[in-house]
Design a protein that fits this description.
By secondary structure, the chain is mainly alpha-helical. The chain contains 18 helices and no strands. It holds the Pfam family AbrB.
């Protein structure tokens, strides 16, 4: 009997599709429960939480979530984001380019100040904390951390992922709280519900958009574009839109499915059991996330003084989270998706292209300073 059970467990661990099926069950249950208790973006948060908990409780199963599923979810989100861009909105964004530069720089300065404070309180080297505190640059910072000598990769990963998880939870709760009065969310939901009844409106146009989105995603990955499976489809959709070939909004069930595809993947990213000094790092990550969100909230109030945009749009534009998650929330609350996407996209590209060489320069200067200080007189 024991041999049979061991054999079944072994076959389950070796069969990726069975492991994926089990993971999907947990993700779907989480989505339904979070929808039932009226949590914001339930299929993202619910699937993420239940997959994370399930993977810790049932370690013998070895939960699995294919990267292709997550990439498909990102393609769907990229298409939705691209639909919000028209010629008039792009002109409007052009007028906001100076403020994009200003507020991106301010947010990064705030992140550096928080990193300095945490490094001072914890004794963890400043370069490690700084790489873990740069908002919206998870993949870039982890890649850079692997190349820089003396960086604790585990701490960087955990700080980045835990901050992202905090933002995924806290930002929706703030947006749907009385602080913002998201009255537009109900109207948006009604409009989406109306669109969902007319699936035929998607065809045959959706096939061209689907092919373009996939091709742009694959080309973006080939040329190592940041978040290629999100930005590639978004760019392809924008180009088709501007050419006069109009796309249609996706039904809510498809958007919920894209949330599920993302949530299951994120849920497997957190592995706190591999972390040293768990309590201290967790407390520091919470402190860092809270201060960064609070500063983003303050900057968003300032941004509304520069441009005639709503508080919800402003906050989502400057929230230090992932562009895909902020786009999903903006869609839910009827925010200006094009403005949110442009601010998030600008910060992503700035972090991808400008921040790594800047950090390398800073760290080299710090290393030279230490060597000079330790040189015998």
């Amino acid at each position: 009997m024991t041999d049979t059970a061991s054999l079944n467990n072994s076959s389950l661990r070796n069969n990726k599709w069975l492991r994926f099926l089990v993971t999907c069950v947990f993700a779907v249950i989480g989505g339904f429960i979070f929808q039932w208790i009226h949590m914001p973006i339930p299929w993202l948060l619910g699937s993420m939480v239940f997959v994370m908990i399930g993977s810790k409780l049932f370690k013998g199963v070895s939960f699995f979530w294919p990267g292709q599923v997550r990439n498909t979810g990102m393609i769907i989100i990229g298409y939705t984001m691209g639909l919000s861009f028209t010629l008039s909105t792009l002109k409007q964004i052009g007028h906001q380019l100076p403020t994009m530069v200003l507020f991106t720089a301010l947010l990064l300065v705030v992140a550096a100040a928080i990193a300095f404070m945490i490094a001072f309180l914890s004794g963890i080297p400043f370069p490690t904390v700084l790489m873990g505190s740069i908002p919206g640059g998870l993949s870039q910072m982890i890649t850079l951390a692997e190349e820089v000598e003396g960086i604790d990769l585990t701490v960087v990963t955990f700080l980045q992922v835990s901050r992202l998880i905090m933002i995924i939870f806290c930002v929706p709760l703030l947006i749907f709280s009385p602080l913002f009065h998201p009255s537009g969310s109900h109207a948006s939901g009604a409009a989406s519900a109306a669109l969902s009844t007319n699936w035929s409106a998607l065809f045959p146009h959706i096939w061209l958009f689907a092919v373009v989105c996939v091709v742009f995603a694959l080309v973006g990955k080939r040329i190592k574009f940041p978040t290629a499976f999100l930005l590639g489809p978004m760019i392809g959709t924008i180009l088709l839109n501007l050419s006069g070939y109009e796309g249609h909004s996706l039904p809510p069930v498809v958007l919920s499915l894209s949330q599920l595809m993302m949530g299951g993947y994120i849920g497997l990213l957190l592995k706190p059991e591999n972390l040293k000094h768990k309590v201290k790092i967790i407390l520091l990550a919470i402190l860092s996330g809270v201060v960064l969100i609070a500063c983003s909230l303050g900057l968003s109030v300032l941004l509304t003084k520069f441009h005639a945009i709503t508080e919800v749009t402003s906050f989502l534009s400057l929230s230090p989270g992932g562009m895909d998650q902020m786009a999903l929330i903006a869609k839910e609350v009827n925010g200006d998706l094009s403005v949110v996407t442009c601010y998030q996209l600008f910060r992503t590209l700035f972090i991808f292209f400008a921040v790594p060489p800047l950090l390398r320069l800073i760290f080299r200067s710090m290393l030279k300073g230490k060597k000079l200080a330790n040189r015998p007189m």
